[in-house]
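Q: What residues go here?
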Protein backbone atom coordinates (compact mmCIF):
# COMPACT_ATOMS: atom_id res chain seq x y z
CA UNK A 1 0.00 0.00 0.00
CA UNK A 2 1.43 3.39 -0.94
CA UNK A 3 0.58 6.93 0.07
CA UNK A 4 1.84 10.25 -1.23
CA UNK A 5 4.23 12.11 1.05
CA UNK A 6 2.64 14.74 3.26
CA UNK A 7 3.37 18.20 1.90
CA UNK A 8 1.59 20.51 4.38
CA UNK A 9 2.27 21.05 8.08
CA UNK A 10 1.45 18.13 10.33
CA UNK A 11 -1.57 18.39 12.59
CA UNK A 12 0.74 18.82 15.60
CA UNK A 13 2.37 21.80 13.84
CA UNK A 14 -0.97 23.43 13.04
CA UNK A 15 -2.38 25.52 15.88
CA UNK A 16 -6.19 25.38 16.25
CA UNK A 17 -6.69 29.08 16.94
CA UNK A 18 -10.48 29.07 16.54
CA UNK A 19 -11.15 26.65 19.42
CA UNK A 20 -14.10 27.72 21.58
CA UNK A 21 -14.22 26.55 25.22
CA UNK A 22 -16.41 23.51 25.75
CA UNK A 23 -18.28 22.43 28.85
CA UNK A 24 -20.79 25.21 29.60
CA UNK A 25 -23.34 22.43 29.10
CA UNK A 26 -22.23 18.90 29.98
CA UNK A 27 -21.69 16.71 26.90
CA UNK A 28 -24.13 14.15 28.28
CA UNK A 29 -26.87 16.83 28.55
CA UNK A 30 -27.00 17.63 24.83
CA UNK A 31 -29.13 14.73 23.56
CA UNK A 32 -32.43 16.61 23.31
CA UNK A 33 -30.93 19.61 21.51
CA UNK A 34 -28.95 17.29 19.24
CA UNK A 35 -32.13 15.42 18.28
CA UNK A 36 -33.97 18.67 17.52
CA UNK A 37 -31.04 19.94 15.48
CA UNK A 38 -30.83 16.66 13.56
CA UNK A 39 -34.45 17.03 12.48
CA UNK A 40 -33.88 20.69 11.59
CA UNK A 41 -31.02 19.62 9.32
CA UNK A 42 -33.40 17.41 7.36
CA UNK A 43 -35.42 20.50 6.40
CA UNK A 44 -32.29 22.55 5.73
CA UNK A 45 -31.15 20.14 3.02
CA UNK A 46 -34.62 19.23 1.70
CA UNK A 47 -34.23 21.47 -1.35
CA UNK A 48 -30.84 19.94 -2.17
CA UNK A 49 -32.09 16.36 -1.81
CA UNK A 50 -35.27 17.12 -3.77
CA UNK A 51 -33.82 19.19 -6.59
CA UNK A 52 -30.18 18.21 -7.15
CA UNK A 53 -29.05 15.16 -9.14
CA UNK A 54 -27.94 12.41 -6.73
CA UNK A 55 -24.17 12.24 -6.33
CA UNK A 56 -22.53 8.78 -6.25
CA UNK A 57 -21.01 9.56 -2.84
CA UNK A 58 -24.24 11.16 -1.54
CA UNK A 59 -22.45 14.51 -1.22
CA UNK A 60 -25.47 16.34 -2.66
CA UNK A 61 -27.07 15.76 0.76
CA UNK A 62 -24.16 17.14 2.77
CA UNK A 63 -23.38 20.41 4.55
CA UNK A 64 -20.27 22.46 5.14
CA UNK A 65 -19.69 24.43 8.31
CA UNK A 66 -19.55 28.22 8.05
CA UNK A 67 -17.62 29.69 10.96
CA UNK A 68 -18.76 33.20 10.02
CA UNK A 69 -22.43 32.21 10.22
CA UNK A 70 -22.18 29.50 12.88
CA UNK A 71 -24.17 27.37 10.49
CA UNK A 72 -24.34 24.15 8.56
CA UNK A 73 -24.77 25.19 4.92
CA UNK A 74 -26.37 22.94 2.32
CA UNK A 75 -25.46 22.70 -1.36
CA UNK A 76 -26.25 25.40 -3.91
CA UNK A 77 -29.66 25.26 -5.60
CA UNK A 78 -29.22 26.38 -9.25
CA UNK A 79 -32.49 28.30 -9.57
CA UNK A 80 -32.84 31.52 -11.62
CA UNK A 81 -31.95 33.19 -8.31
CA UNK A 82 -29.42 30.65 -6.95
CA UNK A 83 -29.42 30.09 -3.21
CA UNK A 84 -28.26 27.89 -0.38
CA UNK A 85 -30.02 27.00 2.85
CA UNK A 86 -28.19 27.27 6.16
CA UNK A 87 -29.08 25.90 9.57
CA UNK A 88 -27.84 28.39 12.17
CA UNK A 89 -27.13 26.10 15.07
CA UNK A 90 -27.01 28.51 18.00
CA UNK A 91 -30.19 30.30 16.92
CA UNK A 92 -32.01 27.13 15.73
CA UNK A 93 -33.06 28.95 12.57
CA UNK A 94 -33.12 28.33 8.82
CA UNK A 95 -31.56 31.06 6.68
CA UNK A 96 -31.58 31.38 2.90
CA UNK A 97 -28.27 32.71 1.57
CA UNK A 98 -27.22 34.08 -1.78
CA UNK A 99 -23.98 32.77 -3.31
CA UNK A 100 -21.98 35.41 -1.41
CA UNK A 101 -23.50 34.12 1.86
CA UNK A 102 -25.60 37.23 2.32
CA UNK A 103 -28.88 36.38 4.11
CA UNK A 104 -32.04 36.69 2.02
CA UNK A 105 -34.65 35.24 4.38
CA UNK A 106 -34.81 33.68 7.84
CA UNK A 107 -37.16 31.26 9.58
CA UNK A 108 -36.69 30.76 13.35
CA UNK A 109 -37.76 27.20 14.14
CA UNK A 110 -38.58 27.80 17.81
CA UNK A 111 -42.29 27.11 18.34
CA UNK A 112 -42.85 25.65 14.88
CA UNK A 113 -43.35 22.14 13.55
CA UNK A 114 -41.76 20.60 10.49
CA UNK A 115 -44.73 21.31 8.20
CA UNK A 116 -44.38 25.05 8.82
CA UNK A 117 -40.68 24.94 8.00
CA UNK A 118 -41.17 22.92 4.82
CA UNK A 119 -43.95 25.24 3.63
CA UNK A 120 -41.66 28.23 4.17
CA UNK A 121 -38.85 26.55 2.21
CA UNK A 122 -41.20 25.60 -0.63
CA UNK A 123 -42.44 29.18 -0.86
CA UNK A 124 -38.90 30.56 -0.92
CA UNK A 125 -37.82 28.07 -3.59
CA UNK A 126 -40.73 29.18 -5.77
CA UNK A 127 -39.87 32.84 -5.13
CA UNK A 128 -36.30 32.14 -6.29
CA UNK A 129 -37.63 30.71 -9.55
CA UNK A 130 -37.34 27.03 -8.61
CA UNK A 131 -39.99 24.34 -8.42
CA UNK A 132 -41.09 24.66 -4.81
CA UNK A 133 -43.67 21.90 -5.19
CA UNK A 134 -40.84 19.39 -5.70
CA UNK A 135 -39.30 20.18 -2.31
CA UNK A 136 -40.41 17.39 0.00
CA UNK A 137 -39.09 15.43 2.97
CA UNK A 138 -38.73 12.23 0.93
CA UNK A 139 -35.24 10.78 1.28
CA UNK A 140 -33.40 7.47 1.10
CA UNK A 141 -32.60 7.20 4.81
CA UNK A 142 -34.27 7.58 8.19
CA UNK A 143 -33.10 9.29 11.36
CA UNK A 144 -34.01 8.58 14.99
CA UNK A 145 -36.91 10.22 16.79
CA UNK A 146 -40.09 11.94 15.68
CA UNK A 147 -40.08 15.12 13.64
CA UNK A 148 -41.35 18.23 15.45
CA UNK A 149 -45.01 19.07 14.79
CA UNK A 150 -47.62 21.54 15.98
CA UNK A 151 -48.12 19.61 19.23
CA UNK A 152 -44.41 19.06 19.86
CA UNK A 153 -42.58 21.91 18.10
CA UNK A 154 -38.92 22.82 18.10
CA UNK A 155 -37.93 24.44 21.40
CA UNK A 156 -34.87 26.66 21.68
CA UNK A 157 -35.26 27.12 25.44
CA UNK A 158 -32.51 29.30 26.89
CA UNK A 159 -30.33 28.42 23.90
CA UNK A 160 -27.43 27.12 26.01
CA UNK A 161 -27.45 23.59 24.58
CA UNK A 162 -27.55 24.88 21.00
CA UNK A 163 -24.69 27.31 21.70
CA UNK A 164 -22.70 24.36 23.02
CA UNK A 165 -23.45 22.25 19.95
CA UNK A 166 -22.38 25.15 17.73
CA UNK A 167 -19.07 25.19 19.61
CA UNK A 168 -18.64 21.43 19.12
CA UNK A 169 -19.26 21.66 15.37
CA UNK A 170 -17.11 24.77 14.96
CA UNK A 171 -14.18 23.27 16.89
CA UNK A 172 -14.44 20.01 14.98
CA UNK A 173 -14.48 21.83 11.66
CA UNK A 174 -11.33 23.78 12.58
CA UNK A 175 -9.57 20.62 13.77
CA UNK A 176 -10.58 18.58 10.73
CA UNK A 177 -9.61 21.29 8.25
CA UNK A 178 -6.17 21.49 9.86
CA UNK A 179 -5.87 17.70 9.68
CA UNK A 180 -7.06 17.55 6.05
CA UNK A 181 -4.56 20.25 5.06
CA UNK A 182 -1.76 17.95 6.26
CA UNK A 183 -3.11 14.90 4.39
CA UNK A 184 -2.92 14.78 0.56
CA UNK A 185 -5.47 11.96 0.49
CA UNK A 186 -8.07 13.70 2.67
CA UNK A 187 -11.42 14.64 1.18
CA UNK A 188 -13.50 17.73 1.97
CA UNK A 189 -14.75 18.28 5.51
CA UNK A 190 -18.49 17.70 5.36
CA UNK A 191 -21.42 17.16 7.71
CA UNK A 192 -23.62 14.24 6.74
CA UNK A 193 -27.37 14.44 7.48
CA UNK A 194 -27.88 10.73 8.15
CA UNK A 195 -25.57 10.20 11.13
CA UNK A 196 -25.06 13.98 11.59
CA UNK A 197 -21.30 13.65 11.95
CA UNK A 198 -18.81 16.11 10.49
CA UNK A 199 -15.83 14.34 8.98
CA UNK A 200 -13.17 13.93 6.34
CA UNK A 201 -12.35 10.64 4.63
CA UNK A 202 -8.71 9.86 3.85
CA UNK A 203 -7.91 7.67 0.86
CA UNK A 204 -5.13 5.38 2.11
CA UNK A 205 -4.60 3.61 -1.20
CA UNK A 206 -5.08 -0.07 -1.96
CA UNK A 207 -3.48 -3.18 -0.55
CA UNK A 208 -1.69 -5.84 -2.59
CA UNK A 209 -5.03 -7.48 -3.36
CA UNK A 210 -6.50 -4.26 -4.70
CA UNK A 211 -8.81 -3.62 -1.74
CA UNK A 212 -9.28 0.09 -1.03
CA UNK A 213 -8.40 1.35 2.45
CA UNK A 214 -9.77 4.53 4.02
CA UNK A 215 -9.65 6.31 7.36
CA UNK A 216 -12.57 8.44 8.50
CA UNK A 217 -11.76 11.20 10.98
CA UNK A 218 -14.62 13.14 12.45
CA UNK A 219 -16.92 14.23 15.23
CA UNK A 220 -20.28 12.70 16.03
CA UNK A 221 -22.60 14.90 18.14
CA UNK A 222 -23.75 11.70 19.83
CA UNK A 223 -25.58 8.57 18.73
CA UNK A 224 -26.53 5.04 19.81
CA UNK A 225 -22.90 4.25 20.61
CA UNK A 226 -22.24 7.29 22.84
CA UNK A 227 -24.87 9.67 24.23
CA UNK A 228 -22.51 12.64 23.93
CA UNK A 229 -20.26 14.20 21.29
CA UNK A 230 -17.12 12.23 20.47
CA UNK A 231 -14.18 12.38 18.11
CA UNK A 232 -13.45 9.24 16.14
CA UNK A 233 -10.82 7.78 13.85
CA UNK A 234 -12.39 4.95 11.89
CA UNK A 235 -10.30 2.66 9.66
CA UNK A 236 -11.85 0.58 6.91
CA UNK A 237 -11.57 -2.33 6.51
CA UNK A 238 -11.68 -2.79 10.27
CA UNK A 239 -8.50 -4.05 11.93
CA UNK A 240 -8.60 -7.08 14.19
CA UNK A 241 -10.15 -6.05 17.50
CA UNK A 242 -7.69 -8.21 19.46
CA UNK A 243 -4.60 -6.50 18.01
CA UNK A 244 -5.23 -2.85 18.86
CA UNK A 245 -2.39 -0.88 20.48
CA UNK A 246 -2.69 1.49 23.43
CA UNK A 247 -3.58 5.08 22.55
CA UNK A 248 -2.15 8.30 23.94
CA UNK A 249 -5.72 9.53 24.48
CA UNK A 250 -9.15 7.96 24.16
CA UNK A 251 -9.90 4.28 23.66
CA UNK A 252 -10.78 1.72 21.02
CA UNK A 253 -14.44 1.09 20.29
CA UNK A 254 -15.07 -2.57 19.46
CA UNK A 255 -18.85 -3.17 19.49
CA UNK A 256 -20.48 -3.03 16.04
CA UNK A 257 -17.57 -1.12 14.53
CA UNK A 258 -13.88 -0.68 15.26
CA UNK A 259 -12.31 2.72 15.70
CA UNK A 260 -10.59 5.05 18.13
CA UNK A 261 -12.85 7.29 20.23
CA UNK A 262 -12.30 10.33 22.44
CA UNK A 263 -15.50 11.26 24.28
CA UNK A 264 -16.75 14.74 24.89
CA UNK A 265 -16.51 14.20 28.63
CA UNK A 266 -12.78 13.48 28.26
CA UNK A 267 -12.26 16.63 26.18
CA UNK A 268 -14.22 18.84 28.58
CA UNK A 269 -12.20 17.48 31.52
CA UNK A 270 -9.21 19.34 30.02
CA UNK A 271 -10.91 22.54 31.09
CA UNK A 272 -8.78 25.26 29.42
CA UNK A 273 -9.52 25.80 25.70
CA UNK A 274 -5.86 25.34 24.72
CA UNK A 275 -5.71 22.08 26.67
CA UNK A 276 -8.91 20.84 25.03
CA UNK A 277 -7.52 21.65 21.59
CA UNK A 278 -4.20 19.94 22.36
CA UNK A 279 -5.97 16.82 23.64
CA UNK A 280 -8.15 16.61 20.52
CA UNK A 281 -5.14 17.16 18.26
CA UNK A 282 -3.07 14.55 20.09
CA UNK A 283 -5.91 12.04 19.86
CA UNK A 284 -6.37 12.45 16.11
CA UNK A 285 -2.65 12.36 15.31
CA UNK A 286 -1.95 9.36 17.54
CA UNK A 287 -4.99 7.35 16.46
CA UNK A 288 -4.30 7.91 12.74
CA UNK A 289 -0.68 6.82 13.29
CA UNK A 290 -1.87 3.73 15.17
CA UNK A 291 -4.27 2.80 12.36
CA UNK A 292 -1.49 3.11 9.79
CA UNK A 293 0.87 1.03 11.89
CA UNK A 294 -1.78 -1.69 12.11
CA UNK A 295 -2.19 -1.65 8.34
CA UNK A 296 1.55 -1.83 7.77
CA UNK A 297 1.87 -4.76 10.17
CA UNK A 298 -0.89 -6.69 8.41
CA UNK A 299 0.64 -6.46 4.93
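A:
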Amino acid sequence: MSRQATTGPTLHEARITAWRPLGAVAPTALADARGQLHHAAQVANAAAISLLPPAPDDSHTSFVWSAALGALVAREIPAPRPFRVALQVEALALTVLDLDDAPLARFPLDGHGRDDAVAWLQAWTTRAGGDGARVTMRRHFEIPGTAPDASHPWRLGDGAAFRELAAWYGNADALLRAFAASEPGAGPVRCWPHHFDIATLVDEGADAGGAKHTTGVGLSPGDDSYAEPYLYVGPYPYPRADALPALAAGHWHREGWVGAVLTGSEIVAASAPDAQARLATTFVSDAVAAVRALRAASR
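A: Context that may help when evaluating the design: The chain has two domains: 28-134, 160-298. Residues 28-134 form one domain.
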